[in-house]
């Protein structure tokens, strides 16, 4: 793999992903120019590919000349006819055999360049997705992004192949045909040129219509991809509630919408192709009659009729190929623009040039913080003020929608305050490199997120040089010892896609272990014990209480019994803190927290 990377990647001052993003940024609104810049540093491979391409197709271009010369020798009773036939046969056979190594070299050079661009684009998209804000990901369906990474990049690679394979083939075929023709008969050459305006008029007529149809179809496919992914993830819920027919009906509507867009696209492509084909076939018949008339008049030799007919067929077929390629080119250009929607997005988490944190103690201050989500004018947080001491455990409670999870997202740095400040150790979170801050942070989300791999891989994700002793301590603390002991492969057991081979409680305990092994200074627990049974919850709670000692911990919990040991409890309502104190202090107040506790009792 490294050898292939070395062959394909030209030496650049910046990393490959940044290079591709710069290509898009410098050529906004010019998809073909963007495409050309994507191959900068690989142009020499295309030059070599052109040379090999010319050599491998020589047998095809020479054959009409050989055929015409043999016919002319036979009809003229040339005494050297047999010798000429032998020479021409050996020449053509040699050129045919030359096709084999030349085709291999051509494919090698061309593929190295196009595969480099394909891989580079995907890497650039993946890098960009890691930089885009959480708000962007929340508002954009994952199926659409997946479609851009796989389908659109594939379409761009197809566009490159068509431009540097089919277009090259077309250009060289037409060029050779016209050069040979003009060297033998200017009259026939002029006749050939008369077909060009017809081709141009045909292409211009349909270009804009095809572009519109391709855009509609691409967007509908992205929507379908997102819907399918959502449907697959919801299969257990659908099955549990006997909603299979409803889901099929809902997806059928989307599939028929795609079919309708595809049908309209197919029709315009079919009409375009058939009109072009019919026009050029008529001109081919006219060419046969015209060259026959010239031969009768003695202006060309009889054998040249075959020569001109072959070359005219070449020109006709190549121009027809251009017509056929236009939908593919239009689709590729649309995909270039589609990828640009992600690569050029400015909705990113920008950490460049900001202060880097070497150490974190864990003191937090929320100073008059206001925040609202995009497309929603209502503030989720309204002038929130909160002080959390280093090493303190603070529990956030309140009704759903009060702003508890938003506070956690501000702590993590997923969102930035619209007004006011969020300070960590006295430093404004919006002015520091969040990547360096998050190295001291561990998060256990409400819904456990595991990737396909082993239990060991999931626990040690992002951590290097973890000793076996550290790992075993974390496993014990997260109450995973019995589970791992019961599995034939222990820590090396595969968890399946999204941890599907494990129960909800087991997945959550692995998520907790993943957080604990980082030895963080700040811990964020969003309903971390919600998926555990009563016994496991008690054991995990006890372990968390021990392990959070000396670390600043933010807990969101709806079961108020799990936060009795928190140093402070903040009651959040209408986006601000209405009550703040210890469990006993808030119970003594008999305010909102007391009322919530009474409801759960």
UniProtKB/TrEMBL annotation:
The keyword Transmembrane applies. It is found in: Cell membrane. Residues 62-331 form the ABC transmembrane type-1 domain. Keywords: ATP-binding, Membrane, Nucleotide-binding, Transmembrane, Transmembrane helix. Residues 364-599 form the ABC transporter domain. The chain crosses the membrane at residues 46-66, 86-106, 163-182, 188-209, 270-296. Gene3D superfamilies: ABC transporter type 1, transmembrane domain, P-loop containing nucleotide triphosphate hydrolases. It is a multi-pass membrane protein. GO terms for molecular function: ABC-type oligopeptide transporter activity; ATP binding; ATP hydrolysis activity. One of its GO terms (cellular component) is plasma membrane. This is ABC transporter ATP-binding protein. It comes from Simiaoa sunii.
């Amino acid at each position: 793999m490294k050898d292939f990377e070395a062959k394909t990647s030209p030496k650049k001052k910046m990393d490959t992903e940044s290079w591709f993003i710069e290509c898009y940024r410098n050529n906004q609104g010019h998809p073909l120019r963007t495409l050309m810049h994507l191959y900068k540093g690989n142009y020499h491979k295309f030059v070599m590919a052109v040379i090999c391409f010319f050599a491998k197709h020589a047998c095809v271009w020479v054959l009409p000349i050989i055929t015409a010369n043999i016919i002319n020798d036979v009809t003229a009773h040339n005494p050297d006819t047999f010798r000429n036939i032998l020479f021409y046969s050996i020449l053509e056979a040699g050129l045919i055999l030359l096709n084999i190594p030349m085709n291999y070299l051509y494919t090698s050079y061309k593929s190295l360049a196009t595969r480099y661009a394909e891989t580079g684009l995907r890497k650039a998209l993946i890098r960009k997705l890691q930089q885009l804000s959480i708000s962007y990901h929340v508002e954009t369906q994952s199926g659409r992004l997946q479609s851009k990474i796989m389908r659109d990049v594939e379409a761009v690679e197809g566009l490159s192949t068509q431009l540097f394979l089919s277009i090259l083939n077309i250009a060289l075929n037409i060029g050779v045909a016209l050069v040979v023709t003009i060297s033998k008969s200017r009259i026939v050459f002029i006749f050939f040129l008369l077909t060009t305006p017809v081709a141009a008029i045909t292409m211009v007529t349909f270009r804009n219509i095809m572009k519109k149809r391709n855009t509609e179809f691409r967007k509908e496919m992205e929507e379908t991809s997102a819907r399918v992914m959502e449907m697959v993830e919801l299969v257990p819920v659908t099955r549990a509630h006997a909603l299979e027919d409803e889901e099929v009906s809902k997806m059928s509507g989307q599939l028929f919408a795609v079919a309708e867009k595809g049908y309209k696209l197919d029709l315009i492509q079919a009409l375009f192709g058939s009109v072009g084909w019919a026009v050029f076939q008529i001109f081919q018949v006219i060419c046969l009659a015209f060259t026959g008339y010239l031969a009768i008049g003695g202006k060309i030799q009889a054998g040249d009729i075959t020569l001109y007919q072959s070359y005219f067929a070449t020109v006709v077929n190549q121009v027809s190929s251009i017509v056929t390629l236009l939908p593919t080119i239009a689709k590729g250009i649309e995909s270039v623009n589609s990828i640009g929607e992600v690569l050029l997005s400015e909705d990113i988490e920008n950490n460049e040039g900001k202060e880097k944190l070497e150490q974190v103690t864990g003191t937090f201050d929320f100073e008059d913080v206001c925040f609202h989500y995009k497309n929603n004018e209502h503030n989720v947080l309204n002038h929130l003020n909160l002080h959390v001491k280093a090493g303190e455990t603070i529990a956030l409670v309140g009704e759903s929608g009060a702003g508890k999870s938003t506070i956690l997202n501000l702590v993590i740095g997923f969102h930035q305050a619209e007004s006011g400040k969020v300070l960590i150790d006295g430093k404004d979170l919006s002015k520091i490199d969040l990547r360096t801050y998050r190295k001291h942070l561990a998060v256990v989300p409400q819904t456990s997120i595991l990737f396909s791999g082993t239990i060991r891989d999931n626990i040690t994700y992002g951590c290097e040089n973890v000793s076996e002793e550290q790992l075993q301590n974390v496993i014990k603390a997260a109450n995973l010892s019995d589970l791992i002991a019961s599995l034939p492969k222990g820590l090396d057991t595969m968890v399946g896609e999204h941890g599907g081979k494990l129960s909800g409680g087991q997945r959550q305990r692995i998520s907790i272990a993943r957080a604990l092994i980082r030895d963080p200074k700040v811990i964020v627990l969003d309903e971390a014990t919600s998926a555990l049974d009563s016994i496991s919850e008690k054991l995990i709670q006890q372990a968390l209480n021990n392990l959070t000692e000396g670390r600043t911990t933010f807990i969101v919990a709806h079961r108020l019994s799990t936060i009795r040991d928190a140093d402070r409890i903040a009651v959040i309502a209408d986006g601000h803190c209405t009550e703040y104190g210890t469990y006993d202090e808030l119970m003594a107040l008999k305010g909102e927290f007391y009322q919530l506790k009474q409801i759960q009792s």
